[in-house]
């Protein structure tokens, strides 16, 4: 799926994010809710107006899952199976929401990493996150 160069780009970006999962994830959620308000449907446990603590907490969990995927690039299906089952069978997340999340994540990365987030890195992350989304939606069949 991913070339060695793409995997290197993913690891390089993750090294910049690692240790900052909570603020990156909180910003991702806030951007998602602002740009695509319908996605709040899947985060009702956060309330109509989630506070900073809730955003940081849930954002951290989301990005920790991305970290798991980064560490298991060669076997995303096995690494993300519990998360895929949760999203399909318990949370019943509409698969159409994953591309929205990917788009918002790319914007957050670009806004924070700026010049460090090259076109090649963006392309690798887009391919990687699309692969993650595919794995997370496979159980919807």
From TrEMBL:
Belongs to the globin family. SUPFAM superfamilies: Globin-like. GO terms for molecular function: haptoglobin binding; heme binding; metal ion binding; organic acid binding; oxygen binding; oxygen carrier activity; peroxidase activity. PROSITE patterns: GLOBIN (PS01033). It comes from Pipistrellus kuhlii (Kuhl's pipistrelle). Pfam families: Globin. GO terms for cellular component: blood microparticle; haptoglobin-hemoglobin complex; hemoglobin complex. It comes from the Eukaryota. Keywords: Heme, Iron, Metal-binding, Oxygen transport, Transport. The keyword Iron applies. GO terms for biological process: hydrogen peroxide catabolic process. Residues 1-141 form the Globin domain. This is Hemoglobin subunit mu. InterPro entries: Globin (IPR000971), Globin-like_sf (IPR009050), Globin/Proto (IPR012292), Hemoglobin_a-typ (IPR002338), Hemoglobin_oxygen_transport (IPR050056).
